[in-house]
Specification:
Strands 5-4-1-6-7-8 form a 6-stranded parallel beta sheet, with helices on both faces. Strands 2-3 form a two-stranded antiparallel sheet. The two termini are 17 Å apart. It has helices spanning 25-39, 45-64, 73-87, 96-103, 115-125, 136-146, 166-176, 190-199, 233-239; strands at 12-15, 22-23, 110-111, 127-132, 152-155, 183-187, 202-206, 228-230. With 242 residues, it is an alpha/beta fold. It is 45% helix and 13% strand.
């Protein structure tokens, strides 16, 4: 845990969104349960959503490595949904229109219980912005749907790349107007914070143990290289004196 005096230069906070600010698991599971009822299916949507996220991450990494041309996240999710349904023998169960509707779930995610209060407090003292891999249109939809009080919406689409590529963190410098060491990246994903730290930003890890649902065990252990570690956005606001 960093001492508060070492963070006095922080002027802005940038936030990962999916998983950190909003819960994507429960909305997906509820949607899946409704689909199962409507279609008389018995799909394990917990396992399916984990596979979907895995396929999505693979495509992001291929784009970062230059193995594929840039593609917006909503299109990646839609493309990988087709792959997912094929892999699980479910292609015949969903029409194109139904798949398009399933894909909309990524624009209708819900805030964690502490997100709105914590962000509102942090916003009084700092500039607060998204810094997400999602596309601009989807991120605006998520922010509005979840009622997240951000000052700015920045996404990797503006850099035509994806985190953890340095070009995405550079967006915060270019658009918010602060040096890297004046910006703190907030995320529940260690890879994101490692890349932000390497870029010169400060880092705050917010633990989201339920990110993948009650049965999963994401890595939420503290690390000595975090500037801050918090259990919630409210606790983060406390730590930063907001």
């Amino acid at each position: 845990m960093a001492q508060a005096t070492s963070l006095v230069n922080v002027r802005a906070l940038t936030f990962d969104v999916q998983g950190t600010c909003v819960d994507f698991c429960q909305p997906l599971l509820r949607m899946g349960a409704a689909v199962n009822r409507a279609k008389g299916l018995q799909i394990d949507w917990g396992a399916l959503s984990a596979d979907w996220r895995g396929l999505y991450r693979t495509v992001l990494d291929q784009i970062i490595a230059g193995e594929r041309p840039w593609l917006r996240v909503d299109r990646i999710y839609r493309e990988t949904l087709d792959t997912l349904l094929e892999q699980h023998g479910l292609s015949a169960s969903f029409t194109t229109a139904e798949r398009d509707e399933l894909n909309q779930i990524w624009s209708r995610l819900e805030a964690w219980p502490d997100s709105v209060e914590g962000l509102a407090r942090l916003r009084r003292r700092f500039v607060v912005s998204t810094l997400s891999n999602a596309g601009m249109r989807a991120m605006v939809a998520v922010v509005k749907h979840a009622g997240l009080p951000f000052d700015a919406v920045l996404t990797a689409e503006l850099a035509l790349s994806y985190k953890p590529a340095p070009a995405v963190y550079q967006l915060a410098v270019d658009y918010l107007g602060y040096r890297p060491d004046e910006i703190m990246m907030v995320a529940c994903h260690k890879y994101d914070l490692k890349a932000a730290r390497a870029f010169g930003m400060r880092t705050a890890f917010v633990a989201r143990p339920l990110e993948f649902g009650p049965g999963a065990k994401p890595d939420v252990a503290p690390e000595p290289w975090f500037d801050l570690y918090a259990e919630s956005f409210v606790a983060l606001a406390d730590a930063l004196g907001a």
